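Q&A log
Question type: sequence-to-structure
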Amino acid sequence: MPAIKDRFRGFLPVVVDVETGGFNNQTDALLEIAAVIIDMQADGTLVPGETVNAYVTPFEGSNIDPKALEVTGIDLNHPLRVSMEENAALGKIFTPIRKQIKATGCSRAILVGHNAHFDLGFVHAAAERAGIKRNPFHPFSCFDTATLSALAYGQTVLARAIKAADITWESDQAHSALYDTEKTAELFCTIFNQALDSGMYTPKV
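Response status: OK
Response body:
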């Protein structure tokens, strides 16, 4: 039976999307984070697994560009936005990832994202501010679905890649960390499963 630790050299793929107050992970606020852990089925196909998300309280002194809020549609004062400090938010995200790393025999998680280094930078910056020592993610390696989509579909924009992969896309839900993460997870699995179906990759048994 194929194992995910063998498919990715001991790494557990975890799809992550963040919504932020700007582009600088050192100065701009982390506002939302979501993660989808990738599972492998007995036939070697990949499927989205457990999903976890959190609204994040901007760290003290952080910058929030109003234009960023316009793009994401985030209302920091919305009564249903129950946010938590970075330490608690990352703890909520990291706990199931650590459990799955142990359960699958993987060595650590590898972040999957659309333009993944952006998300990875914000995750690591927030973890450093929060003093989290056991960050499950690789410090610099990641899987980028923008690159994978360029290879598979000739598309680099997430919405266009999703549509090229025949995955349902609701534009009015875009820029929610949870929605974007779930759709990116579907995209990642679709691309890798196509490679499996085509014979480009043969799982070890």
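Response note: The longest helix spans residues 177-198.
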